[in-house]
Design brief:
The complex is a heterodimer of chains A (258) and B (780). By secondary structure, chain A is of the alpha/beta class. Chain A has 7 helices and 10 strands. Chain B: It comes from Catenulispora subtropica.
């Protein structure tokens, strides 16, 4: 368990609290590698990746298809295990966690936003958020309403996904991700299915979460225009970090164009 | 179909091999049951027909003094008649220390009769001083050639030597009469002996003329002509349909024929549902592929044919094991059935048409099930199929939430469970139907078994309260009663009369038994629709089944004609009794004695003291002077239960089949459910929902469907069992469905267990779900 440590696993909640106070990176990747398959069909999705992401940063991971962006996101999110190296989140190595501890980690520390929203069609917007909120504490409904309000979707709380536009669905998906108040928000092509204006709105919400909500946001995209609004841009190529750049004065989402 | 399409079909089937296996299993069960039941039906019907022809079961039997005089006239009728004059005597029969009712049927000295020939199982035909023992009786008492049996004649008991054992078509089902179809060899047995022997054990044997038509095409005309001749002489005649053994077995074979039609329909309906669910899901998952193919110019016809191929594959996969299983199952059933009757006529023939029909029905069912998904595939527009993000489906509040608003306040995950049951309504309805069909199947058989058990319990526990029935020789009932009352094991005893009579109302006539008991009898209860009735001092109580037969209302006069003496009485109908196992008339013994002007008792009913040694009491009473037969009620009840024991085995088999069918259908429905929702389930897992919780939610969704299906299945199963029971009624047996309380509970639990088992592999896949692939690839 992330919050209820087993004997052989670190109490990551305590570690995270300590890390926040100590000023350590939110995410630190050390010699991270991931391979798929074996023998002649082995694919090296990630090779010796080193990266540090600081709390409250808005990070954009850029790269062509097959560069390992999503694999990196999945590894940080505890969806997959690395083949080698360390993934420190708030100072604790999540690569060593058991399956159930990784589930707890995802439940308490990470919020996911996917390209295709992945909402439960039989649940309303509010209920889609609530089903996740229930996993992480009391007052699930109130917290869900607040999360929806936070992404400008309070009015659509009782609508079903089929009654919402793509941008609205993605904002509900963001509300679902942040309702747990995770320190880490991982977004996989969050604007991939959206038009320019809607994409801008969604990115604006994510940017605000990083800036005002102090979430660490990592966005995976192949849209290089989004890099302009990031604090930290990382380019991946063939499974390795090919370039890294810190941005001192990122532009606002509304000013993006692609 | 091109090579590439064949490869696609082959690989798709392999990828979903367990789902296709599940469908094939249901199809195989349907084919198996069809072939088994239909072959059993045809084999049994064929066996009986062959035996009836070889042994010349009489087409008609004229009974009464002077019947033999009609032989010449009958021989002149068309249809190449074969006739046999014979005599029958009802007498006491003693085998070892057992005393029972015996019937001695006359046959030519050391030769086969021309009609109603005997199938020798051991020894030879009887000569002077010998008897041939009917096979059921011989088997029961382990009688062998050379052993002795006693027959009670006018001058006391005489010993006869067993010359052999054999079967008569008239006693394949060893019924004593149309009203006493259910007997036990402890109570009633048949012997065949030379006519001289029949005369020596009875002063007034019944004369009969048995007639058989060699020209089977003219049998009906011969029967009609013979009946006319008999009627002209005022003699009763009985056709095959009146013959107790023929009638009982004919009813049985007909009911097997009904099952041969009904059961496969249930299974094949389930197979249609399973195939439809599987292929609908397959087509939905391949929308993009279908769209691409269509966009590239593939004709709808080719697509339709391709997806119909999946149905045919599932059908073909089920047909072969179904045919093989059906052949062996049918063989096993026929063997069990014939051995339960003690018949040697086990005929198992391979009926090619049964196999062809079974295979054709299965393939047709599978094709029909595949038709809708195949048509949907052919109609898919390229634009719709090629869209990147498939429609997410429209959500809605479920009916139950609208009906019960507090449900909207339960946890969101459980709201998802409630709503998911109506998310894909068609599939939910089909899944519920599958559960209902499975449960129906179990309840039909369990209901039949329960009814048999309940009827026997009621007849021999509640209605007939005597521990034993003692038949006496004419005029000895009073002395036997006095003796019996002094037996230390006997708590109570009373006289009774059991007489063959004809009841008539105008031109309506019914041959039955008249049971006369003391007005204050403690040996018999008379249940009515309102409780119980007292035996009236005057008038007769009739079994309810006779109300329609004779069109009589209470207080209407009914004429009672005694078969032995020909005397008649007219009595008012005092009421009707609801007895499940008899269609008889009851009246006061005192009133009968008074009406006839002489004692009419034919035996004694007795109740033993609690804890009394039944066997010792039987032995003491059986040897009392004047005792003709001693029938232990428990033995009769036990014999009846044995006669229906095949039902227990069938219930067990059907429970297995139904559970397998339910499990297969639920497995497919759940697989489709999980596969279709892989993305949202993967997202919930990614968001930190534990696999155990997810498994519980999915399991709950399916159990909700099972829970909906169970009451539907209970209702349809009960109704179908009731209907089948109604079709099984005869004049002698008027049964209604009597299902034990625990039966539907156990049946529902059985289906629930099957559902839980079916869920296990699917829930396991939830634990192994590849979240990374699902959330990224958005696989359907």
């Amino acid at each position: 368990m992330w919050s209820r440590a087993r004997n052989d696993e670190p109490d990551l909640a305590a570690v995270a609290e300590e890390a926040a106070k100590s000023g350590r990176p939110a995410v630190r990747l050390e010699s991270l590698g991931k391979t798929y398959g074996s023998g002649a069909s082995t694919v090296h999705a990630l090779k010796n990746v080193r990266l540090e992401v600081w709390p409250g940063e808005f990070v954009v991971l850029l790269g062509p298809s097959g560069s390992g962006k999503t694999t990196l996101l999945n590894l940080v999110g505890g969806i997959e295990r690395p083949s080698s190296g360390r993934i420190e989140v708030a100072g604790a190595d999540i690569a060593a966690l058991s399956e159930s501890a990784r589930t707890d980690y995802r439940r308490t520390r990470v919020g996911f936003v996917f390209q295709f929203f992945n909402l439960v069609p039989s649940l309303t917007a509010l209920e889609n958020v609530e089903i996740i909120a229930e996993l992480t504490g009391p007052n699930a409904r109130a917290r869900s309403r607040a999360a929806l309000a936070g992404v400008g979707m309070a009015e659509a709380a009782d609508r079903f996904p089929g009654q919402l536009s793509g941008g609205q669905q993605q904002r509900v998906a963001i509300a679902r991700a942040i309702v747990k108040e995770p320190p880490l928000l991982l977004c996989d092509e969050p604007t991939g299915s959206l038009d320019l204006n809607t994409g801008r709105q969604v990115l604006g919400v994510l940017r605000a979460l990083a800036r005002e909500g102090h979430h660490t946001v990592i966005v995976v995209t192949h849209n290089s225009a989004i890099a302009d609004m990031a604090d930290h841009v990382v380019w991946l190529h063939s499974g390795a970090v090919s370039r890294e750049q810190k941005v001192d004065s990122p532009v606002e989402a509304a000013d993006l164009w692609w | 179909m091109s090579r590439v399409f064949r490869a696609k079909l082959r690989r798709d089937v392999w990828r979903q091999r367990w789902q296709f296996t599940a469908v094939a299993l249901v199809i195989a069960l349907g084919v198996c049951v069809f072939v088994a039941a239909f072959d059993a039906y045809r084999n049994l019907a064929g066996s009986f027909d062959r035996a009836y022809a070889e042994q010349r079961l009489p087409d008609v039997v004229i009974t009464g003094p002077g019947a033999s005089a009609l032989a010449g006239d009958v021989a002149a009728l068309p249809g190449h008649p074969v006739t046999q004059v014979r005599h029958e005597a009802e007498t006491g029969l003693r085998i070892g220390d057992r005393t029972l009712l015996g019937r001695v049927v006359g046959v030519p000295d050391g030769a086969q009769p021309a009609v109603a020939r005997l199938a020798l199982r051991s020894g030879r035909l009887p000569g002077p001083g010998e008897v041939l023992v009917e096979q059921h009786l011989a088997d029961h008492f382990h009688l062998r050639v050379g052993q002795k049996v006693g027959l009670l004649g006018p001058y006391g008991w005489q010993d006869f030597t067993v010359s052999g054992t054999g079967l008569s078509t008239e006693y394949f089902w060893p019924a004593r009469s149309a009203q006493e179809v259910m007997t036990t060899p402890d109570y009633f047995g048949v012997l065949f002996a030379p006519e001289t022997t029949v005369s020596s054990v009875s002063t007034a044997p019944v004369e009969q003329l048995a007639v058989y038509a060699e020209d089977r095409g003219a049998a009906a005309n011969l029967v009609a002509g013979t009946q006319n001749l008999a009627a002209a002489r005022g003699l009763p005649s009985a056709v095959r349909a009146d013959q107790p053994s023929f009638h009982a077995l004919d009813e049985d074979v007909k009911s097997i024929g009904t099952f041969a039609t009904l059961l496969p329909c249930l299974f094949l309906a389930a197979a249609v549902v399973g195939t439809y669910v599987l292929l609908s899901r397959l087509v939905a998952a391949q929308r993009a592929v279908i769209g691409t193919l269509t966009a590239n110019g593939l004709s709808p016809h080719t697509l339709r044919r391709h997806y119909l191929g999946y149905g045919l594959v599932a059908g073909a996969a089920g047909v072969v094991p179904g045919l093989v299983g059906g052949y062996f199952f049918g063989d096993w059933f026929t063997t069990q059935y014939t051995s339960a009757l003690g018949l040697p006529l086990h005929v198992t023939e391979l009926h090619p048409w049964t196999l062809v029909i079974g295979a054709g029905a299965a393939l047709t069912a599978a094709s029909l099930a595949a038709w809708a998904p195949a048509r949907a595939a052919a109609r898919t527009s390229p634009a719709e199929a090629m869209s990147t993000a498939p429609p997410s489906g429209s959500g809605r509040f479920s009916l139950v939430e609208r009906a019960i608003p507090p449900l909207r306040r339960i946890r969101a995950r459980w709201r998802m469970v409630v709503r998911s049951t109506t998310r894909n309504r068609k599939r939910s309805i089909l899944t519920v139907s599958g559960v209902a069909v499975s449960l129906t199947l179990v309840l039909v058989f369990a209901g039949l078994r329960d009814t048999v058990s309940s009827v026997v319990d009621r007849q021999f526990g509640t209605i007939q309260r005597q521990s034993a029935e003692v038949s006496t020789t004419p005029g000895r009932a009073a002395s036997v009663l006095a003796e019996v009352r002094t037996d230390p094991a006997v708590r109570a005893a009373e006289p009774y009369a059991r007489l063959d009579v004809s009841l008539t109302n105008g031109n309506r006539r019914f041959d039955t038994l008249l049971m006369a008991l003391p007005t204050d009898t403690t040996m018999h209860q008379f249940p009515t629709s309102h409780g119980t009735a007292q035996l009236p001092a005057r008038g007769v109580l009739l079994s309810r089944g006779l109300k329609d037969t004779l069109r009589l209302n209470p207080a209407d006069p009914v004429t009672i004609t005694f078969a032995e003496t020909g005397r008649s009485l007219t009595e008012p109908v005092a009421g009707y009794v609801d007895e499940p196992m008899s269609a008889v008339a009851y009246m006061s013994l005192e009133h009968l004695d008074q009406s006839l002007g002489e004692p009419s008792a034919t035996g004694v009913l007795l109740q033993l003291r609690p804890g009394a040694d039944r066997d010792a009491a039987r032995q003491r009473i059986s040897v009392l002077p004047g005792v003709q037969a001693y029938l232990d009620t428990k033995a009769l009840a036990s014999a009846m239960r044995d006669a229906f024991s095949l039902y227990d085995t069938l219930v067990g088999i059907m429970l297995l089949f139904a559970a397998a069918m339910a499990a297969a259908m639920l497995f497919n429905a759940m697989s489709a459910n999980v596969a279709e929702r892989a993305v949202e389930l993967g997202t919930l897992r990614a968001a930190g929902m534990a696999p155990g919780m997810l498994a519980r939610l999915i399991a709950a969704e399916n159990l909700v469907l099972v829970a909906i299906g169970i009451p539907v299945g209970l209702a349809t199963g009960t109704l179908l069992a009731r209907w089948l029971m109604a079709t099984y009624q005869t004049q002698g047996y008027h049964w209604s469905l009597q299902m034990q309380t625990r039966t539907p509970v156990l049946a529902a639990l059985g289906i629930l267990v099957a559902a839980l088992v079916a869920q296990t592999p699917v829930l396991r896949t939830l634990r192994r779900i590849d979240i990374a692939r699902i959330v990224r690839e958005r696989s359907l």
